[in-house]
Amino acid sequence: MQSTETNTNPAAKSLALFCKVVDNFGDIGICWRMARQLYVEHGITVTLWVDDLLSFQRICPQVHIDAEVQEIAGVIVRHWRDQQGTFTTADIADIVIEFFACDIPPGYIQAMAKCEPRPVWLNLEGLTAEEWVEGCHTLPSPHPSLPLTKHFYFPGFNNKTGGLLREASLGHERAAFQADTPTVAAFLQQLGLTEAEINSTKVSLFCYPHAPVTELLKVWKSGDKSMTCLVPEGVTSEAIAAFLGQPSKAGISGVHGALTVRVLPFIPQADYDKLLWACNINFVRGEDSFVRAQWANKPFIWHIYPQDKNLHHVKLNAFLKTTASATASLIALSHAWNGVSHPPLDWAEIWQDFQADLPEIARLSTQWQEKMQENGDMTSNLLKFVNTVRVASQKDAV
Ligand code: TRH
Questions:
Q1: Which atom of ligand 1 lies nearest, measured to the CA of 21?
Q2: CATH code for 170-373?
Q3: Cα-Cα-Cα-Cα dihedral sign, residues 358, 360, 364, 367
Q4: Which residues does the annotation mark as catalytic?
Q5: In the prediction, which pLDDT does 9 show?
Q6: How far is the CA of 86 from the centre of ligand 1 (A)?
Q7: What's the whole-model pTM score?
Q8: Where are the domains of the chain?
Q9: How many angstroms does the Cα of residue 206 sit away from the middle of ligand 1?
Q10: Could you check whether 4-165+377-397 and 170-373 share the same CATH topology?
Q11: Domain 4-165+377-397 -> CATH class
Q12: Residue 305, phi then psi, degrees to nearest 5
């Protein structure tokens, strides 16, 4: 963390991260990565308050769903059951983060207001490439009645935002894994892939149920190259069951024409990263897998989380405009995949164009990844901001 001559405040040592699982796995997925990074790379004592331990367990099998408090990988995990509870100043962390504007318990806020110095309170927002974020990033929001100020913190794609979540060792680990063919093969073998599947073009498929999966499977099936589509259990189950001719269950695979579809178990988060590194193309969704696909340094297609009034189309286009890796063919496939372009669509042509551009898309993906690294990583950027708030509040107090 940064220190300045005027800062006699000791650096923040503890952090409470409040996570409400709205749905699926992205909320806890992001919070879990960030909590570990804060502890491992910055030595911060982290308490992760999470309301849904079952979802957490899906991405992190060490989680005990009945435990009120548990320690996992150095992070204190507390089951956030309700808004009740009384807290003293001793319970309050130096930094308090509410993820996606979740309301933290009123008793906790009351105790925050009594702390001296006050904790730095942040609302960590969702990722979007829209320009308005730059104007809102780090904006203060004073509490209406208590002597507390909350700041908005936005991840993003340039240095006017908080940047993207990325562990310090990620690039090195990813590159070492991808360069080690036997390790990649052993990893895929463990997931049940046959040698032929390992040697084929591998596509990971993680999307929401409304994705036009059937159309794409049809094109892949009649392609001239053998392809293996790896889909987690529970994802786009109907379309996968229709292809397999039986219910989609982990371990089951089916072949039609050039295409093998294999259903994978839902794997721990660290393994999911490796899956993205091991595949040739990744279909990802939401926020966390979308960011990890960028760090995987492989071509990817994003299925964006749907929002009312097609707001997600605006967000998708903002990203496609920002990224340097969007060829016309990638934009066409992204639009078709996300329902921006309307049927009837020539899926064979859309896929062929994308496939023909893959070498160029791969080259641009690497460039994009390097550019994103220049923004620093979100956790370190956030701690630097915390320090500036602490220094400023110290000056105000003098
Ligand atoms: O699961 P998502 O759709 O999550 C979210 C939530 O819906 C959230 O409410 C919304 O705000 C956000 O999307 C935009 O997609 P995401 O963000 O990619 O999160 C998936 C997490 O699950 C990610 O951390 C990777 C992890 N994962 C595994 O650990 N193992 C697996 O096998 C798979 C497929 C994913």
A1: 9
A2: 3.40.50.2000
A3: positive
A4: 27, 287
A5: 57
A6: 33
A7: 0.96
A8: 4-165+377-397, 170-373
A9: 9
A10: yes
A11: alpha beta
A12: -60, 125
